[in-house]
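Much of the work behind modern protein science is quiet bookkeeping, done one molecule at a time. The protein below has been through that process, and both of its lines are reproduced in full.


***
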Amino acid sequence: MRTNYRINSGTRFEVFSQDQLEELFVSALHLLEHTGLDVQHAEGRDVLKKAGAFVEGARVRLPSYLVKRALQAAPRSFTLFARDGNLKHDVHVGPGRAHFGSGLGGPSFVDVETEERRPYVKADAPLVAKIADALPNIDFVESAGLVGDVAEFAGLFANTSKPIVARSRDSDGLAEIHKIALAEAGGQAAFERRSNYAYYIEPSSPLVGDSSALEKLVFAARHRIPLVYAPCLVAGKTAPMTAAGAITQAAAEAWLGLVLAQTIQPGLPFVMGGVLSVADAGLNLAYGAPELALMMAGLTELAHYAGLPMWQTGGCTDSKCLDEQAAIEGALSAFFSALSTGDLCHAVGYTESAATGSVFQLVMMDEAIGYSRRITRGIEVNEDTLAVEVIHHVGPNGHYLREPQTRRLFKSEFWFPNLCDRRNFEEWDTLGRTTMRDRAIARAQDILARHQPAPVKPATQKVIDKVLAKVEKPVRKTAKRARKARAH
């Protein structure tokens, strides 16, 4: 029997020492208590004031005890459930687990058929969901584009059983999204037991709780919808130039949302967020920069130190196409997200600094995530894996091909690629000399042609149809008026 025997459960890396994390933690608390944030939501200010915050006009300062109480109330672990009950698609958020999902995306999209960049449209959401549903290393789903109304969520929800991280322009859109989720779950009580989506909110920086963000937060908290609250900071533009300063500010901004959410609904699942990087030449946030991976890892450590799950970023690129830059930047950022165990890592499939979503990048990064997960799984050391008896049995000049251990562990010990080519040159040449780009595009198109996601319940489809009809009615009226105006 061993005593005081330490086991490493996987491969990890650390940016900060415990002393440094304490310093960051205290600095964020100091900012909240002495500088505060401008809260542009009257109801939010009232809730915080009643809880003990100092309120002067729009400025809200949070005493440290309020923040610490909220941190204690928020769960470190929770589960987002597959809508169809598929246990393999449940996402168990908790220490040591890194989960990956497609990004929220921007205004553009790489067309699956033409491979050309074009505006993102509502019809793209089902394509993204179907591909994400089929990829083994994509755990949750976002739209990879920017529409922002309930049609986006409906297109995702009907085409994947994996949990969704949703967003909308306003709380009215969130209310419509929630109707669809409740129909599938079987009502509010059933949803609270088995939440099938989380909701994403991005407040303004620096140090602002804007009205739109907090209006959605209040609705989500009152309806017990798991929350992702993620300020997006650009070092040198909307945050200090230093990584430590940006991390401190991001924590303060996120914890304002945490305190409000936990005051309204103690125990609500709350994922602390923050997308941090440096500016490119056009002062936009750079998604392929090494500073993104470094700052995200540092903020993840601070979130975990404070006892919260973290919204991470990885698998993304500043490249405009599926090329070597996209592979390098995407794979490295995914790898460091896995190493730092970001709980929910989004942005997989982002290209062009988050302006364009690409399912081809998503497919290629699924491979990179699988590769990363094999490394972060680490090396297990026990009597079986040490294989002393097996080595003794084979002896000098033998081989292990016929050993029972080889047959038993072959598939679990080795990582097998879906896209990376390990054939010899002659085989590769005979099969058409395909590149990684060729294989990623072919796999995406094959998934769209063959994969069949689990359908939603008939009752849910009726709710989707009703909600979409309600949303599209004013659009049709506007189009009709425009046609009449052109006719005259």
DSSP finds 18 helices and 19 strands in the chain.
